[in-house]
Amino acid sequence: MRLIFIPLFALWLGGCADENRPVATIAGEAIAGETIRAIVAKLPVGLRNKEGGDAARQQYLQSIIDRRLLLTEAAAHGMDTLRAVTRKVRETVDGRVIVLYRSRFLAPEAAVPEGEVRRVFEEEGYDRERKLNAILVRTRAEIDEVVALLATGRPFAEVAREYSLDERSAEKGGELGFIGREAAPGLHVPAAIFNSLPEGEISAPLAAGHSWHVVLFTADRPTPYERYRPMLEDRLFGERMAAVEAEHYETLREAADVALDPAGLSSILDAARRTDTAALETSEQTLYGGKDPISIAAAWRALNRLNAQRALQDSLRALAALERLVLNPTLMRRAALEAGLYDEASVQQLERRARENTLLDAMRKRFAAIEPLPDAEVWTFYDSHPDLFYHEASTQVEELLIADLQDALDIEARIAAGTPFAAFADRSVRKSAIESKARFHFHPRDEKLYPQLVPAILAAKEGELTGPVRVQGGYSLFRVEGQNPGGVESYEKVQQQARALLRRERENQAFENLVKDLRQRYADRITIDEDQLRQALPDSLVRPAP
After folding, report:
1. In CATH terms, is domain 128-222 a member of 3.10.50.40?
2. CB 180 within 8 A of CB 170
3. Candidate CATH numbers 3.100.10.20, 3.10.50.40, 2.40.50.140, 3.90.930.12; the one for domain 393-485
4. Which of 72, 126, 137, 311 has its CA 20 to 30 A from that of 204?
5. Can you spell out the DSSP letters for 76-102?
6. Alpha-carbon gap, residue 300 to 277, rounded angstroms
7. pLDDT tens digit sequence for 436-471
8. Other CB atoms closer than 10 Å to residue 39's CB: what's the count?
9. How confident is the model over 42-96, as pLDDT tens digits?
10. For residues 524 and 458, what is the distance between their CA atoms, to the nearest angstrom?
11. What mean pLDDT comes out for the span 336-359?
C-alpha cells in the first residue's frame, strides 16, 4: 500500500512539530497521538512488536488504520444501520448497564457488616476443625450390627479395622483426619452433627450415599477466621442481594404499573408448545401491560438470547422464567435509563467499542465468507500438515471422578464385582464422562493440570482397579486399559478438526485480502505524519518485545 508520509526534513524546515496535529488522517478523519499511545501502552507483552523502533510504530499505526478502513467500508455498505447490528450493540450495553445499576444502587444495601460475618463463623461451626473417625459399611443391617458391637464396649478403632469399607482409614482405626465445617456435608456428616456431637461420643447411624456409617470426633482445634471470611462474606452478600433485588423489583413493578396480560401469556405458551414460534419473533401483542408495555416479540428475543425457550413448555416454569429473564431485566434497564447511566462517559465508550466490534464481525462474515470446502481439499490440508494432527503418547484409562469418599467406595466395590465403569458415568463430576462413557486418555504433560491423578495413573498396573485416589475435585477411580503410542491421528478421527482448521485459514486469508484491497482503494486518502508518530510513541513504548 502506498502511504503518504510527511518527510522529517519538511518538519525541520517548518520548525517544531505541533502537538495538536494528528499522527495520521484517513479520508479526513484524524487519528490522534493520544489514541495510539493509549492503545500501545495497554498492549500485553505477547502482542508487542518483536523488532521495536520504527517497525513497531508502523505496525501499531497500520493496525489502527486497517480498523478504521473496515469501519468506513461497513458504513458505506449501510451495515451500521442493520437491525441485527443495532440489537447486538444494545444487548451488550444493556448487560453492562444492568451490572452498573446493581453495583451502584443495590449492592450497597446488601453490604454485610463485619460483625455479621463473625457471628455466622462462630454460630455455624466454622471456627473449629474436628478430627473425624468413621466406620463405613454397605447396608443398614450392617451398621446396626456395628452399633451393637460398639454398645458392648468394643473399641471404635478395633471395630473400624474389622468392618469399615474404607481401607485407608480402617488401617488407622477409622481416623480420617481433621475436617472443617465446609467439608462435613461432602463426607455425609450433617452440619447439625458436626456442630453438636460431643467429642468422644459416637453418632447414630447416618446415611452415606448408598452406604451407612457412624462417626466419632476425637479432637477439636481452632480455625483461623480469615480462612472462611471471603466465603462467608460472599454467601451472606448473595443472600442479602437476593432479598434487596426482590424488594426493588416489586417497587419498580408498582411504579411502572406492570400487569401480566393473560391473552398474551396464552399466545406465547400455545405457540411454544406447538413449536410454531415463527410468529413470535414479530408479534406486537402485549405480554406485560403498564406504562411501558413489553411485547411478545421482545420477550421471545430475550429468551432466545439466553437459550431459555424450553422454559415455556411448562406453565409454572414459564411464569417464573418470564419474570426473571424478561420482566425484571426490562424494569432494571428502564430504571437505569431514568438514573442517567446510559449517558455516562464509560457507557458511551462501551457502546462505541461494541458497535465497532460488531461491525467488524459483520464485515468478516459478509466479505470474508468462503464456499463449502470439498473433501479432497480437506484431505490435502491434512496430508500436508501432519504436525497439526500429531498426538503424544498417552495412557488410555477408564476413570470416574466422584465427589465424596463414601460414594467412591461404594462404586469401587460394585466395579470390583463386575459392573462396568460406564454404568456410573452419570455419577462422575468430570466433564464429558457421559459422552466418553468414562474413557479418557492422559498424557505425561497433563500432570500440570492433574498433579495427583496423572502420577497415580502412570504408576498403576494395566488392568488393575485403582482408587479411590484423593484428587482435585473429589476421589478418582480408574483402571488403565493400555498405552497409545505417539503418532499422527488417522484422517477419519480428525476430519472435522482438519475441516475447521482449513476453513479458519481460508477465512483469515479472505479477510487479509479484503484489508489489502481497502488499503489500495484508500491509499491516496491516507496521510501519516512520521514526526508526530515518533512523539506519540517514544522509544520507551516501542522497545523490542522480549
Report:
1. yes
2. no
3. 3.10.50.40
4. 126
5. HTTGGG-HHHHHHHHHHHHHHHHHHHI
6. 9
7. 999 999 999 899 999 999 999 999 999 999 999 988
8. 14
9. 988 888 888 999 999 999 999 999 999 999 999 999 999 999 999 999 999 999 9
10. 64
11. 96
